[in-house]
Amino acid sequence: EYRAAGLAVVGTDVGGNMDAVVVGVTGILVPSASPEALSGALDRMRTEASLRVKMGQAGRARASEHFSLPRCVNAYEVFYRTLLRAP
Questions:
Q1: What φ, ψ does residue 15 adopt, rounded to 5°?
Q2: How many CB atoms lie within 10 A of CB 45?
Q3: 53 CB contacts (<8 Å, ≥6 apart)?
Q4: d(CA 21, CA 3)
Q5: Cα distance between residue 87 and residue 74, in whole Å
Q6: By CB distance 3.0 to 4.6 Å, which of 3, 28, 37, 41 could disulfide with 59?
Q7: C-alpha 58 chain-centroid distance
């Protein structure tokens, strides 16, 4: 959702965030147990407008390329067709 909205992300390196965020391209991930790192990353996004915009644009382009409606529909179709052929 952040990518589709053209927003850069600041998050923690937990769960599937490494799969969702291209670090340094679409956002910044920090260690989960480091409030100092999170604060620093948020402050960096707040003060570096050009970085924020660049990452947001990269996120939107990535979302459009990998998660467009036609692409998602096709992926579901392939998935269901595979299931229908399974024994």
A1: 50, -135
A2: 19
A3: 8
A4: 9
A5: 22
A6: 3
A7: 10
